[in-house]
From TrEMBL:
Its cofactor is Zn(2+). PROSITE patterns: ADH_ZINC (PS00059). This is alcohol dehydrogenase. Gene3D superfamilies: Medium-chain alcohol dehydrogenases, catalytic domain, NAD(P)-binding Rossmann-like Domain. Residues 36-161 form the Alcohol dehydrogenase-like N-terminal domain. Homodimer. GO terms for cellular component: cytosol. Its EC number is 1.1.1.1.
Length: 377
């Protein structure tokens, strides 16, 4: 832990991606001190999210340090930071909350004008990076870059949590589980007795299922062609599974047939824009609502016949489940502590930092939900 003197550059291990799809390389990186309104965090645990995998496979900005679902301990703070002090336990978040911009003050959204989605792998304050390897800049990801023993984030992109909560568990509330629960509760407002269809049974989709179950949905249908995911889905609230590969007819027709005209709520959690159209077609006329959560690797544009909307269907986007991170995330942590929500069962693998490439391979092969990577120093 740093002393109260001015923070200095820290040299530590980080898993650096040097090119798209290339194995991450464990490097000695120099981590700069936090600048004004920033904090430097000693990462305790971090998990691999599918958006990390998608960006690693496709993004053009390299070298880069991925990772954004993380928990850690504040090592030092920059000028102007009053909310955090050395030793605080925190969760990182990929969208911030400045609490003072028009959108933050509106009460209508969790999108922040100041600390929205990160761009170009650079820090918000000065458009520079806080990582270097032998003098070469290494870029950030989602404003977090938690695949490093130490990282620097804007203080608006961290949430203080109780010193008594298990950091190795709650790190997955930084993105996936929270995104799914919030999509069911905040964005869709799933109603009791409703029929819900979830396309994609990864961590996000199964978190939607948990949220729908807790809201009292009567049918929660999971759509996925991965037998391993389908086998485990019912423990998270899925009542039945549909494997599209087993049907000759379009899956939207299957859903409409087995739900007497379509579902009340559909959730696209696979990151496939064609699946958004399928989800819309699977909703019922009049009030059917489709929520899209996935981040597509390719083909970001979607298309849908206007008649789907004329007949009363709605399409909504969901970023981080509508949660305002600083305002709302502590309540989710409290729900976990009080055993009102489950998160432990989403952790299928616990790995050491040196095994990070194994985590990427497991996710590529569809053999995990969340791999939690435990840092050590």
């Amino acid at each position: 832990m740093a002393s109260s003197s001015t923070p200095q550059v820290i040299t530590c291990k980080a898993a650096v991606a040097w090119g798209a799809g290339e194995a991450l390389v464990m490097e000695e990186v120099e981590v700069s001190p936090p600048q004004p309104l920033e904090i430097r965090i000693k990462v305790v645990s971090t998990s691999l999210c599918r958006s990390d995998l998608s960006a690693w496979e496709t993004h053009a900005i390299f070298p880069r340090i991925f990772g954004h679902e993380a928990s850690g301990i504040v090592e030092s703070v920059g000028l102007g930071v009053t909310e955090f002090k050395e030793g605080d336990q925190v969760l990182t978040v990929f969208i911030g909350e400045c609490m003072s911009c028009k959108l933050c003050k509106s009460g209508k959204t969790n999108i922040c004008q100041v600390l929205g989605l990160e761009r170009k792998g650079l820090m918000h304050s000065d458009q520079k990076t806080r990582f270097t390897v032998k003098g070469k800049p290494v870029y950030h990801y989602c404003g977090v870059s938690s695949f490093s023993e130490y990282t620097v984030v804007h203080s608006g992109c961290a949430v203080k949590v109780s010193p008594h909560v298990p950091l190795e568990k709650i790190c997955i509330l930084s993105c996936g589980v929270s995104a799914g629960l919030g999509a069911a509760w905040n964005v869709a407002d799933v109603s009791k007795g409703s029929t819900v269809v979830i396309f994609g049974l990864g961590t996000v989709g199964l978190s939607v299922a948990q949220g729908a179950k807790l809201r009292g949905a009567s049918r929660i249908i999971g759509v996925d062609n991965n037998p391993q995911k389908c086998e485990n889905a019912k423990s998270f609230g899925i009542t039945e599974v549909v494997d599209p590969s087993l049907y000759k007819e379009p899956i939207a027709q299957v859903i409409k047939r087995i739900t007497d005209g379509g579902a009340d709520f559909c959730f696209e959690c696979a990151g496939d824009t064609d699946m958004i159209t399928t989800a819309l077609q699977s909703c019922c006329d009049g009030w059917g609502l489709t929520v899209t959560l996935g981040v597509p690797k390719v083909k970001p544009e979607m298309s849908a016949h206007y008649g789907l909307f004329l007949t009363g269907r709605t399409l909504k986007g969901s970023l981080f489940g509508g949660w305002k991170p600083k305002t709302d995330l502590p309540s989710l942590v409290e729900k976990y502590v009080n055993k009102e929500i489950q998160i432990d069962d989403y952790i299928t693998h616990n790995l050491s930092f040196d095994e990070i490439n194994k985590a990427f391979n497991l996710m590529k092969e569809g053999k995990c939900l969340r791999c939690v990577i435990h840092m050590s120093r």
